[in-house]
Amino acid sequence: MVKHVSFWPTTYTDRYGQETTTLESDGTSLYMVLRGTLFEGSSFTSLCPKNEEDIPTLGSTFPLSRFGELHACVFACELPLSLMVRGATEPGKLLVHFEVFDETRFLPRQAAWDMWLELHVGDNTFRSSHGFFDFEERLNEIQAHLPKDTYLQACIHCAFSDYSPAGHGEFGDLWCFRSNKQGYRNVTSKWDLFRLMSQAQPEAVQETYLCPEFEKRKPGTGYRG
What is the pLDDT of residue 111? Predict the structure, then answer.
């Protein structure tokens, strides 16, 4: 399936300064050109130089972890989103504030990041809380604040998406089962989900992505409910 690419205006800040750039998303990966260097990754915490051979020479230009990822930095992004409002589709805007802490803070039981989300729909604003949470929790928190006749049209609320029972990352770690819809409809436990996965590896998608096969999720669907 051809993926829709979206572009997120982004302000990036680290100890070397502040840059205005764009995060490019294809629904699975993120791409960003920063100070002439192309970074890519599946999440905000995994953005690395695309050319790994450049990593040893970039230490004086970027705060890179020992594995080459950007850390000790802040992303402020603006994501376009679609919402269903009283039976009609309306555009929305999701502001993402994501701070990746210095890896020296990545100690047991300590947070590795801080994030909050802010959804703008028409003249209304819905804001999540701050903290060491993932996009699933923060988007569900915002959804809980929306009127009953309003919901996000995005993978996080799709009838064919689920997370691994073994755990998942903060962003972009959602499984898509649109290629086996009936098989996923029959899932009621984590063992069902593992069996389904053994038949065909599902595709990883971002919580904020939207494809033409979106269907609104019903309570109690799949493993995550």
Answer: 77
